[in-house]
Amino acid sequence: MKKVITYGTFDLLHKGHIRLLKRAKTFGNHLTVCVSTDEFNALKGKKAYTSFEDRKYILESIRYVDEVIPETSWDQKISDVVENDIDVFVMGDDWQGKFDFLMDYCQVVYLPRTEGISSTKIKRDLGMNH
Ligand code: C2G
């Protein structure tokens, strides 16, 4: 089994998220999504519209996703990769280079973001204070 992992908030799920997950899955045959808890989002300076439980529930329904685990800190990636026997770490290229330290533990892949869509844009367009 070739295992892939990716991290994120995945709030107000949209095509950009799905395209990231779909492409990430092509690097193996098992995809773990590590989804930010509400508390960790606060550390990231983000407030998700959808709760952690609901974001987890939604991610678990996606055909490309095999497992969803919580992201509670910036410091868990090495242990996540080692403890889950991860072969490939995948992130959008807005994070280009930021996780290269994982190259000692697994393959690191940054994928081009999907232009023109983001949770922030959705909230802005709907007139929600983000
Ligand atoms: N993404 C994308 N295209 C978009 C929007 C998002 O490819 N238009 C990707 C991001 O690059 C990221 C993933 O979808 O890889 C999840 O995006 P966010 O929920 O915004 O994740 P982020 O807040 O960047 O969290 O420890 C890492 C952090 O948890 C990443």
From TrEMBL:
GO terms for biological process: teichoic acid biosynthetic process. Its EC number is 2.7.7.39. The keyword DNA repair does not apply. Residues 5-124 form the Cytidyltransferase-like domain. GO terms for cellular component: cytoplasm. It is an enzyme of class 2 (transferase). GO terms for molecular function: glycerol-3-phosphate cytidylyltransferase activity; metal ion binding. Signal peptide: none annotated. Keywords: Nucleotidyltransferase, Transferase. This is Glycerol-3-phosphate cytidylyltransferase. It comes from Lactiplantibacillus pentosus (Lactobacillus pentosus). The gene is tagD.
